[in-house]
Amino acid sequence: MRCVNSPAVIEDMIKKSRFLGFIYPCLSVDEALAYLHDLRHKHSGANHIAFSYRIRTEQGDVCRFYDAGEPSGTAGKPIYQYIEGNHLINVLVVVVRYFGGIKLGAGGLTRAYGNTAKKVIEAADITAFIELASVNFILEYKDLQHFEYQLAKYSGVIISKDFAGQVNLLVQLPTVHTDPLLALFHGQIV
């Protein structure tokens, strides 16, 4: 799987229609909906705002595509096919269309929305997706320095520290590194 690091935008003209492609990294459906709300506000004069997203949740991957009034299967689905074909996760791709007066037909719409999605994905900064886990550790003060050294080795970061009788840490690290760190220190996956 791969993910997008930062938003990107492209513009394309196809038979006098203006197509704007947007791509956003999203960690939740609510975040994707917030981007869509913002785009609908900024592009209130657009004829169609089609989109697709695929987001990893604790219950599994959530996928959705929307044709935005275009004939069924001609806008959202072609966008989703490029998300799926590029193995993207935690992503929202939106294509905004300003109608230019020339009808494209079902095949033309499918190509236009798909090509716009393809171009914005190509313009995006994409890296390998690393699934993260949150783990809670309770340590003695004397073990903190060694723990921080080991955590850095496993590409982890401390999210929060609580100093009471012992040190209570909430850390985030790649899921593949949880078992080795749990073998060294007693912790609990949150």
Labels describing this entry:
five-stranded antiparallel β-sheet; four-stranded antiparallel β-sheet; single chain; 11 strands; 32% helix; 190 residues; 38% strand; Ribosomal Protein S5, domain 2; Alpha-Beta Plaits; alpha+beta
Helix tally equals 5
What class do helices, strands and sheet pairing give? alpha+beta
CATH class bucket of the largest domain:
Alpha Beta
Shape, please? Answer: elongated
State the total count of DSSP E strands. 11
Q: How large a portion of the residues is in β-strands, by DSSP E?
A: 35-45%
Helix content: 25-40%
Order of helices and strands: EEEHEEHEHEEHEEHE
The number of domains:
2
CATH topology of the largest domain: Ribosomal Protein S5, domain 2
Question: How far is the N terminus from the C terminus?
Answer: 23 Å
Map the helices and strands.
Blueprint: E1 2-4, E2 8-14, E3 17-25, H1 29-42, E4 48-57, E5 60-66, H2 76-85, E6 91-98, H3 105-123, E7 126-128, E8 132-139, H4 144-153, E9 157-163, E10 167-174, H5 178-184, E11 187-189
Explain what the structure shows.
The protein is an alpha+beta fold and 190 residues long. The chain has two domains: 2-128, Impact, N-terminal domain (Ribosomal Protein S5, domain 2, 2-Layer Sandwich), CATH 3.30.230; 132-189, Alpha-Beta Plaits, CATH 3.30.70. The protein is built from five helices and eleven strands. The mean pLDDT is 91. The relative contact order is 0.18. A five-stranded antiparallel β-sheet has the order 2-3-6-4-5, with helices on both faces. A four-stranded antiparallel β-sheet has the order 9-10-8-11, with helices on one face. It is 32% helix and 38% strand.
